[in-house]
Design brief:
11 helices, 307 residues, mainly alpha, mitochondrion inner membrane, Mitochondrial uncoupling protein 1
């Protein structure tokens, strides 16, 4: 079992690696959120409106078109919308989920997690730390999604001036049409817990397993190339498994009209079809795949230097 001091060191090194990866990849995350929030296009716009680029233009050509559209219509800085709550989230969520992983894994195996550990123990440990971490960090996720969604093409305009203003507005928001309050910071907690527990298990357990597998192969050593391959594998598994709950989470956090997780799932399936649950898949893979590579490479180097 890790000591308090070793947990603190692992927590801060994990938080640093997660925050660095967030800064590098958040434009892809912004594009992913915009794509996931899209509904089916309404009837064709009048020629004037179509020329003006109103309404449903964002994301029509996929991830690259979405990024270019955001940069053109809202400015390049808009691609980093949500970076402040994103860093809040990664500091808490990234630090906790990775910092707790080894001690929780040791708990599941009944001692020190040394040598080969079963894949089931890795999955259980990652599911557990994912749940704990996101329950703490979910308000930061909500604010990040809302800031990213609050673009010109979005129909729900909140006009937050920044992350702190968003937290404060949500807590005190009471009007004839919107009633939120402090509990609203945990809007979408159900799909968020499901999404992050699943993705955390896919990322940490698969990275751990891929790395263990590669190190048994001839010619592989514990180096950057091995970390890169393991990170890519972890990202791919995370996106394939987590995309449906990720879409539901983004829609619930971006649109407060859904009554529950099941309501959001049912309406998305009815109105947009099953393909909607993998909307933004390429953007999501580019984001999570590159995020995992950057985060794990950074984490391994930081651990090698300081731990």
């Amino acid at each position: 079992m890790a000591t308090a001091s070793s947990f603190g060191a692992v927590f801060f090194s994990s938080a640093f690696a997660a925050c660095f990866a967030e800064v590098c990849t958040i434009p892809l995350d912004t594009a992913k959120v915009r794509l996931q929030l899209q509904r089916k296009a309404p009837p064709p716009l009048p020629p004037v409106a179509a020329v003006a680029g109103t309404g449903w233009a964002v994301g029509a050509g996929g991830m690259l078109a979405t990024i270019l559209s955001i940069a053109k219509e809202e400015g390049v800085a808009a691609l980093w919308k949500g970076i402040v709550p994103g860093l809040h989230r990664q500091f808490l969520y990234g630090g906790l989920r990775i910092g707790l992983y080894e001690p929780v894994k040791a708990f599941f195996v009944g001692g020190t997690a040394v040598g080969d550990v079963s894949l089931l123990s890795k999955i259980l440990a990652a599911l557990t730390t994912g749940v704990i971490a996101i329950v703490v960090a979910s308000p930061t996720d909500l604010v990040k999604v809302r800031l990213q969604a609050d673009g010109k093409a979005n129909t729900v305009k909140r006009n937050y001036s920044g992350a702190l203003n968003a937290y404060a507005t949500i807590i005190r928001q009471v009007s004839s049409t919107v009633v939120e309050g402090i509990g609203a910071l945990w809007t979408g907690l159900g799909p968020n817990v499901a999404r992050n527990a699943i993705i955390n298990a896919a990322e940490l357990a698969s990275y751990d397993q891929f790395k263990q597998m590669f190190l048994k192969l001839p010619g592989f050593t514990d180096n950057v190339f091995t970390h890169l391959l393991a990170g890519l594998g972890a990202g791919f598994f995370a996106v394939c498994i987590g995309s449906p709950v990720d879409v539901v989470k983004s829609r619930m956090m971006g649109d407060s009209t859904y009554r529950s997780t099941l309501d959001c799932f049912a309406k998305t399936l009815k109105n947009d079809g099953p393909g909607a649950f993998y909307k933004g898949f390429i953007a999501n893979f580019c984001r999570i795949g590159s995020w995992n590579v950057i985060m794990f490479l950074t984490l391994e180097q930081v651990r090698r230097l300081f731990l």
